[in-house]
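Checklist before submission:
- one chain only
- standard amino acids only
- sequence pasted in full

Submission:
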Amino acid sequence: MESFSLILAIVVVTALAFDFTNGFHDTANAMATTISTGALKPKVAVAMSAALNLVGAFLSVEVANTISKGLVDENGIRPEVIFAALVGAILWNLLTWLVGLPSSSSHALMGGLIGATVASAGFGAVHNDVLLTKVLLPAVAAPVVAGLAAMLATRFSYGIGGRATEGEATRKGYRAGQIASAGLVSLAHGTNDAQKTMGIITLALIAGGAIAPGSNPPTWVILSAGLAIALGTYIGGWRIIRTMGKGLTELEPRQGFAAQTSAATAILASSHLGFSLSTTHVVSGSVMGAGLGRKGGVVRWSTATRMVVAWVLTLPAAALVGALAESVTDLGDWGTAAVAVFLVGSSAAIWKLSRREVVDHTNVNDTDEATEPAGVVTAAIAAVTPPPTGTVTLTEGPAIDIPAQSDGPAQAVTEVTAPAAPPAATV
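Returned file contents:
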């Protein structure tokens, strides 16, 4: 084993910093629906998620091996390349967190790694078959599969319960199930996402000569990666929690339970197979599926569209930054120092911008998304939903009450107009 060089130490610290941003960026994946439905208080939810993320980090190393052994050629990769990759991933995580978009930390990391590797060793150093089968195809298939599963599970649960309004006992039951499924998602997140940092640190150790090629992650790497992602999870990425929990759709407890159970199943299965899956894609797909699974439920497609655009841009954007950072670090020690200063300065600037509108556990469920104009799909779905219960204001005259309907076909209410007052008599 060779000495642990300064650049290698910098890479390990930067990798753990990325793991920290991964934690608070992806807290929403496990706990957004639990918080939005009121199943758990916000601070309790993130504490529970942090603990289970740490436990999940010890369950498997298959995804870590995909990163360290399969995605790029280990031979010829310098620690500076890994550092440049991490710069691209961290900056993309922070930018998407600032605007509250649940993008993929996993794809940011892999995009940064691919860009830096190509800038250093050329396109031949990237294993395209692994990129296609274990990264790109799961990225497309996973949200679709999870969304369909959540939609079917939601329809099944409402079919069993009928159309009658659920009682408090039923709500408590679904909330308990939702807490359990949220714990399962947190465990799966630690199993999948913490391993990506383990893989990148292991690759850096191999590149720096600290461990032999083909080695599994050392125990200290597993522990440190698990602690970093757990700490980031506890801090809570409240901006993204708001988007995932309230900005995408409105969920009832049984929908939240269906969404999280479907997501956890998909993530755990992919981790066992070594797929470097994006938990963000899976959970977002399951939340949208659960939203459409309830009759009258709608998805805010403008928010969903912004999310998909961020997903598409993640790999190329992180790759571009990683490639540029690698080009600068290739100039020598001063180039590496310049990239490090740029990373710290950019991160500080993004944090300062975030202070202009603070989002935390006290206001995470407050959102103006519900007031956005309905899109074509939303309007079409809303047109066949039952009329709202409560008071309808007439264009003239007093308000009238429309009683709730628990059975029978939906009745459309287009407009109610009170008769105009008769004209004054002419004398």
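Reviewer check: The first strand starts at residue 390 and ends at 392.
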